[in-house]
Design brief:
heterotetramer, A: about 625 residues, Pyruvate-ferredoxin Oxidoreductase, domain 3, Rossmann fold, eight-stranded mixed beta sheet, 24 strands, about 20% strand, globular, disordered N terminus, B: alpha/beta, three-stranded antiparallel beta sheet, 12 helices, 13 strands, binds thiamine diphosphate, binds iron/sulfur cluster, binds magnesium ion
Chain lengths: ~625, ~350, ~625, ~350
């Protein structure tokens, strides 16, 4: 079902009955490794530069080259940038998928396609635009080897013309994409764009309704992926030790960070690095290094995804039980096991909160945007050091690897909170230093760092039983006292973790709770619910586990609350079930999607409607 | 019934011995050992106490690292004024690496067992070697898992007998061989019963820059000290072949004795201390990697336990060198050093617009 | 507070005012590695042989020799064999702990002690029996080196006399303990027993009230630890591949099994082994081998404890997602991290049920006795192969490493259920073999084993996305279909897992739910509740997760239900919270103990009373 | 508009080629590769197809095992009638070991990458070597993590350059050296571009009893085939030094050619097949462990890629031998063989009374 604010598409396509401005989705189906990424980014960026809210999602296979890949762009004047399930404008470059892609379209959609594919023979109710890419590429790209890559840029010209994109913006976007060092490549590609444009101008008759018009909704904004944002966040939070083991979709977080670190964190006086990055041999070593570095005082982090999380379990338990900070970015992908490495999911929420054997509980942050990836890096470090415990930042593939428009990041004024660390001077003042004594009643004890020049500084860290003075013990009372302190510590975090954001609509009986990248689909779905069913809803976007009182309050104010998440088992809801009274839980309903694509509004709306009996 | 006795006044305390930085031996000691009486590991702890005391190393500069096992417990039994970290089984190398990343100025001693290193931990061990992480890595090698009651570890020799009579059929992993092949820059083997050699080797390691690996045969009196075991006191005493007679002269002492040409080799260590290697039965050049490998192969064939400095390579870059980090500990750099300014962020934002 | 069915102890000890028969606890405090284990077992066994219900619990340190260790024996005519918190009869051999041990006793307790310790100076309200062990050992043991070991046997003589144990039984127990091959050692030790007896007869005046009298409650029973029982269970269930990595308290499971395998599973015709046992290099390898072996058709298992569980996470996720059987015994100890390796806990219940990243769920069995360790081994294999998934058997240190009296195990008549495996003949009959097709609607698909001589047999196993035909896929619909099948499969297990046992008392408003080794304390606590508070309770002992309808029914029939468990976070209750409707959860209360000692009835009763406001 | 064309009758199919067990090549092929065009791994898959077809091995006897990576995907691209198991990253050795424990009669081929084996998987790799697990272990070695886009793996040579220009500073792990030192009983190195050598080596491995390790340099065209890389096609072609000219004669074929004395050595393999090693530039005895180690050291020093049979040791017990298991697959023994009778249980119970 379509959400266009216009009259429904005529069943006989072929004539432009009406116009749909700044409200459509584009999907480009190509072959992985064919360089289409550049063409797609240029397309997205040029729409962005025209001031129109836009998002781009790369739906790629777990493969380096040769398998089908899709790129979806959504442009929407209202700012709905969740993935749109229905494709309005298809660019079909890949013979392997073109037929299925075309057959899945709704009536009235437009199709730009590689002429030899003869897709027009498949259906009568679409707007077809055949383009002879192979012919067009020859004059613009004399070098045969490069043609495979340059070929894709032609569709930018075709689509640009058909959608009425300002070619100035395409030019700007293209040259930005290539950067000053690759000006020659940019020129070559610009030639391809122009060839596409020229062909479209001369040979294609616009029959579909879609087009863009300049708006002013993106001025000053940036385009960035969540992994890069998280990388910058770590750097501005003062990270000093970074360890990693490559894994999709988390690798680019550290890879981008390395680039920025070189530039931003080389000591001006000495030319030396104020950071250390180590590619570990696996995730056990990556987290082990983080634990060791944090113990010795560094702001240390690692980044991984599902399989890495499983391998980090033992060390995370040590961190919990021995009060050692650690920051772990989990760029979630579809599990279990290897799962679908290039698909998105919120599949590790419950798992991270409970990771490792024995009684453990860990805080988890849920960024929903690049901006929050940036900000929550600092939150995570402050939390980890403030509470001396491992902290997870659960982002996901959709957020981490896709390009998002964003407000520019505000410079973090807050200074890093390094937690309760006693240096030599402080030790002079205390009568006794007992590493695990709960002096302040918040469960957080004071620590010292190795290398502190003071005879009182030393203590012994172990994952086995320890008493307040960090001495070995197997005593029942010591054990209970210590793990009760850890429970208390977890409870203390409630006051400090990022608070949820949302809105209580006094007219609403129903609330929607969600987190992370479900944000975009939920926002749009709430709008659909109002417009299509006249149902107003309140909403609350969680940013952290443990839950804060706002959530309880939110639930209290509504008859029922839907918890929207992207996993099979309702993992966040599970945490609510664990932590809340049955009377509270009784109000909770679950909306889950677990197909691995970025969540779309229609799915949420449909599930909501069904459960509400609408 | 209780009687009150007036105690005689205590005798005047003898003047306490201080080391060169003015400390008694006490802060170099640790908690009372909970290992079995006679365990080789206890002797190694004693050597560590002695060496740090004698060299006058500030205890607070030291980080004691370990995994899990009887051997891994020992950091609690020495250097009570040093931070210690008894981590998880087989993964001390990563923890120690992390600690040194955070604070490159720490003097790190990692004590581990043969099970900890060669069984569960062989992966981390090998990658730590490759990285030439600057620390002293001591394997307390008894050929068994002491703490879990005597199962064979991966260093058990082929044909060695368990207490229950079971014979080990798997080839052993020679940690020294791995060290030499994979990038340790100082590799030695010793025996917990050989006080002088072990002390000298440990001192040499502390003067070395880079990863030094000491595989110390350290008999487990409870589970692997019987006839038929190749890691018993008796077996090692019978089969030990020392490569050199070793002498260590710290950088802060003057070298007094002249060295005899041909027989003794003097090596200047990274910190200016000297190691003097006096040839014993055979010619051996510890800077020759292939010779070291060959010697270990030969010794294995003959059932010999080759001790001494097996290999050393000076001047190779450590992990820390490769990373090119600032001189101060990364972990405690002030915010001004680690948080770029607003203009830096703005510049990045501008590029992304 | 004491539960003796007699008049309270006089405050001035020293005279035998009353008799307490077959109802007391003995605690022997010694030094680890001093060979006291033999003396303790002989003591326990001789009481057992007198027909009196008895239990013995070894409270040992994580150390090989030199640290304090305790052994507690409980003899109880009513069959209450949970640990008793209060010690009635102390044997104080260890100078390090003797004072504290004596100070903790309740008035009226008896103390046999090593004379030089002068413990009698500490208190007036106990019955003291000084014994000059060092003097007594000299004549019985000329060899100085052996004296440390033999010395302990003397207390068996002293205690035997004081408690009126039949020395014939001690003799029998002692020779049984040493076995025919160590007859000389047995003789030596028997000499020590007699020396102790003689000394006691001649020098000690019995003033305490405790004694044994022959009963007939143990005839035909055996004494065995849970690990040995599990080992036998695996053998009689037809295990073929066993892998392990040593870890307390699980090592003895496989070590005992190796002994029994040699004896019971050497092929008569060829003298060759019908099993393979491999000591792996770590737990990742141990579970990896189990996964590989199960995939290739073996009944394969491994045994571990907390830290090993954390390391097995990744492979368990693979087993779940790729439908591969595996049996994992988790002999639980106190976590998190290394925790207290020689203390008991039910700390991995929730963790095992959820192990690994992504959406996963695993069945867990909860044996409560050696008999169930034996039986549930077969259940676990049948479940693992029947449902092609990893199965946990959560036993614990108390059950696994302590000696328990038990009915002899009945020979398992049921044949191993090897699950849905198609051999070459079966393949001939099927039209198409699709590895992951849910042919029967129970979520369990058919599999083939490598090595099956049939062109249709082969399929490709992977932890990445796969469709019904086991082909690689990243499709949304394939993924959802497959993981929905896995959910269905989990639900199907409900019909098959062992059902809970218990009793619905029509007079009871309150129910008690529990599992594993909490069994003994709960039984006794329920008796205390009746006798001390007049409160009748129903009870239900769970044997498995997923929960079966009996549990829901049980909860429905009661106003409130206490869930008793041995961990901090109420892990089984957490699973109930996850799976049950809020109205059901609203009835649940939690009684938790997490000090690492075997659970005692007093703790349960006191917590129950407090929560009930009694 | 659509036109109907009557197709011409198909030409008569050419007679299909069958191997010695009467199978076409088709069942030896796998699914269409999804690797990059030109990837070395594809050539290795082709060799595997060819070798199994030519030797006439029943596909159903084979278990194809792997970890995770581009290389580890390849078992899907050969032997479609064999069971395959693409397990988890770095842990295929344990899975393969388990499979062989369950069914010792399987012919197991494990395909892995250099990241899979030498980085995350080095621990399992080393312990599998020690156990001499009877399988063919093929490392498709490109010096990078292909599937995660080109980061250095632990086999990257010192000084090798990444596409981005970054230089590797860590010493490489030489998997062949590890194999020789730790107990593999056949160790070879080859190059994905050398069809004949690789096929011959693979056939030899299949005739060998015990663990055979083949490290195949297999360039990653997408991430590691540029100038400056030491794992590019060009580099390997330029630096390859073959130790021998190899010829394999299967046991079921008669040996026809006489061997030239001195120049060619004939080795009878476990299954009766023959391997003929013809000396090339230098003298090399692949049964001499130390010589093999030395040769690898020398080659590393000179930047040579030494290919051929580096080491072989015949007759050593495999893990399966040591376990002394019955002849039939354990996994499918009937209940009568694996479930002791009631009297056995009763006897045990009696002892415990
Ligand atoms: C993950 C994990 N597995 C198993 C254990 C149990 N465990 C404790 S110590 C040890 C072996 C120690 O052997 P070694 O390193 O040789 O030390 P030793 O006791 O001989 O000095 C094992 C297997 C553990 N603590 N953690
Ligand atoms: C536990 C885990 N960590 C990380 C990954 C991500 N990953 C997939 S393949 C791979 C590296 C593969 O490199 P290699 O074995 O050399 O194979 P190649 O692709 O080069 O053939 C990595 C790190 C993973 N799948 N699992
Ligand atoms: S068990 Fe062995 S290794 Fe452990 S403390 Fe005793 S003697 Fe030492
Ligand atoms: S990325 Fe490299 S290793 Fe992977 S398929 Fe492509 S060429 Fe091969
Ligand atoms: Mg050991
Ligand atoms: Mg590779």
């Amino acid at each position: 079902m379509s959400t266009l604010e216009v009259s429904p598409a005529s069943s006989e396509a072929g004539h432009q009955h009406y116009r749909v401005v700044n409200d459509f989705s584009i999907q480009v189906g190509t072959v992985n490794g064919s360089g289409s990424q550049t063409a797609n980014n240029v397309l997205m960026r040029s729409i962005f530069q025209m001031g129109i809210p836009v998002s781009g999602k790369n739906l790629f296979p777990s493969n380096i080259a040769g398998l089908p890949t899709w790129f979806t762009i959504r442009a929407n004047k209202n700012g709905w940038i969740a993935r749109k399930k229905e494709i309005d404008f298809l660019v079909a470059m890949n013979p392997e998928t073109a037929r299925e892609d075309v057959l899945k379209l709704e009536a009235g959609a437009a199709v730009v396609y590689d002429e030899p594919l003869k897709l027009n023979e498949l259906r009568q109710d679409l707007h077809f635009y055949p383009v002879p890419f192979d012919k067009l590429v020859v004059p613009v790209c004399p070098e045969v080897k490069l043609r495979k890559l340059v070929r894709n840029m032609i569709y930018d010209g075709v689509v640009g013309h058909l959608l009425n994109i300002d070619f100035e913006e395409i030019h700007k976007a293209l040259f930005k994409q290539f950067g000053p060092k690759k000006a020659k490549a940019a020129d070559l590609n610009w030639g391809a764009v122009q060839a596409g444009r020229k062909f479209a101008e001369e040979q294609l008759k616009k029959t579909d309704p879609f087009s863009v018009e300049r708006m002013n909704e993106t001025a000053g904004k940036i385009i960035i992926d969540g992994n890069s944002a998280a990388a910058l966040g770590c750097i501005f939070a003062g990270v000093t030790v970074v360890t990693w083991y490559p894994i999709t979709p988390s690798s680019s977080l550290v890879e981008t960070m390395i680039g920025y670190l070189r530039r931003l964190r080389t000591d001006k006086e000495t030319g030396k690095a104020t950071y250390a990055v180590v590619q570990a041999e696996d995730e056990l070593a990556a987290i082990g290094m983080v634990v060791g570095a944090s113990w010795a005082g560094a702001r240390a982090m690692t980044s991984t995804s599902g399989p890495g999380i499983s391998l980090m379990a033992e060390f995370v338990g040590l961190g919990y039980y021995a009060d050692i900070p650690a920051v772990i970015f989990d760029v979630q992908r579809v599990g279990p096991s290897t799962g679908l490495p290039t698909r998105t999911m919120q599949g590790d929420v419950l798992k991270n909160a409970l990771l490792s054997h024995g009684d453990t509980r860990h805080p988890v942050l849920f960024p929903s945007s690049p901006q929050e990836c940036f900000e929550m890096a600092a939150d995570a470090f402050d939390l980890a050091e403030g509470f001396q415990t491992p902290v997870f930042v659960n982002t996901d593939l959709d957020l981490g690897m896709n390009n998002w428009m964003s407000d520019p990041f505000a410079y973090p004024q807050r200074e890093p909170k390094r937690g309760k660390v006693l240096d030599a001077a402080a030790l002079d003042k205390v009568q006794e230093f007992a590493r695990y004594r709960d002096v302040d009643g918040d469960g957080v004890a004071y620590r010292t760092l190795p290398g502190t020049p003071h005879p009182k500084a030393a203590y012994f860290t172990r994952g086995s039983g320890h008493n307040e003075k960090a001495q070995y013990t197997e005593r029942e009372d010591d054990y209970i006292k210590n793990v009760d302190r850890l429970s208390r510590k977890f409870a203390s975090m409630v006051a400090v973790v990022p608070k949820p954001e949302g809105e209580i609509n006094p007219k609403a009986k129903i609330g929607i709770v969600y987190y992370g990248t479900s944000r975009y689909a939920v926002a749009e779905s709430r709008d659909q619910l109002v417009r299509e069913y006249g149902i107003e809803t309140s909403h609350l976007r969680l940013k952290a586990y443990p839950f804060t009182p706002e959530l309880l309050d939110f639930i209290a104010r509504h008859d029922r609350v839907y918890v929207v998440e992207q996993n099979r088992d309702g993992q966040l809801l599970a945490l609510m079930r664990l932590d809340y009274e049955p009377a509270v839980v009784a109000k909770l309903r679950s909306i889950r999607y677990y197909g691995g694509m970025p969540l779309d509004a229609r799915t949420v709306t449909a599930e909501f409607a069904q459960q509400e009996g609408l | 019934m209780s009687t009150t006795i007036t105690p005689p006044p205590p005798p005047p305390a003898p003047p306490k011995k201080l080391n060169r930085i003015g400390l008694e031996v006490l802060p170099y000691r640790g908690a009372k050992t909970t290992l079995c009486a006679g365990c080789g590991h206890n002797s190694i702890s004693e050597r560590i106490v002695e060496v740090f005391y004698e060299l006058g190393i500030e205890p607070w500069k030291v980080a004691k690292m370990s995994g899990i096992g009887c051997s891994s417990k020992t950091p609690a039994y020495f250097l009570s004024q040093s931070h210690g970290f008894n981590s998880v089984h087989g993964r001390a190398p990563s923890v120690a690496t992390g600690a040194l990343l955070a604070n490159k100025n720490l003097i790190s001693v990692l004590v581990t067992g043969d099970g900890d290193t060669a069984s569960i931990g062989i992966g981390q061990f090998m990658h730590m070697l490759r990285r030439n992480v600057p620390l002293v890595y001591v394997i307390e090698n008894n050929g068994v898992y002491g703490l879990t009651k005597g199962q064979f570890s991966a260093t058990a020799d082929r044909g060695s007998k368990q207490k229950s009579g079971v014979i080990n059929e798997m080839p052993p992993i020679d940690c020294c061989l791995m060290g030499i092949e994979l990038g340790a820059t100082l590799v030695a083997r010793s025996f917990s019963g050989d006080k002088k050699q072990l002390s000298t080797i440990l001192k040499t390691c502390l003067s070395h820059k880079g990863l030094s690996l000491v595989d110390v045969i350290s008999p487990c009196v409870t589970f692997n000290d019987h006839v038929g075991s190749t890691k018993s006191y008796a077996y090692v005493k019978d089969h030990e072949v020392a490569l050199q007679d070793l002498n260590y002269v710290p950088y802060y002492e003057e070298i007094s004795v002249e060295i005899e040409e041909g027989e003794t080799k003097d090596v200047t260590l990274h910190d200016g201390s000297h190691l003097r290697l006096k040839k014993l039965s055979r010619d051996y050049d510890p800077t020759n990697k292939m010779q070291a490998v060959q010697a270990l192969h030969d010794a294995e064939g003959k059932g010999e336990v080759l001790t001494g400095i097996l290999y050393m390579e000076q001047g190779r870059e450590t992990l820390i060198d490769m990373l090119g980090v600032v001189d101060d500990a990364l972990g405690t750099l002030p915010a001004s050093k680690v948080k770029p300014g607003p203009e830096a962020l703005e510049a990045v934002m501008e590029e992304l617009r």
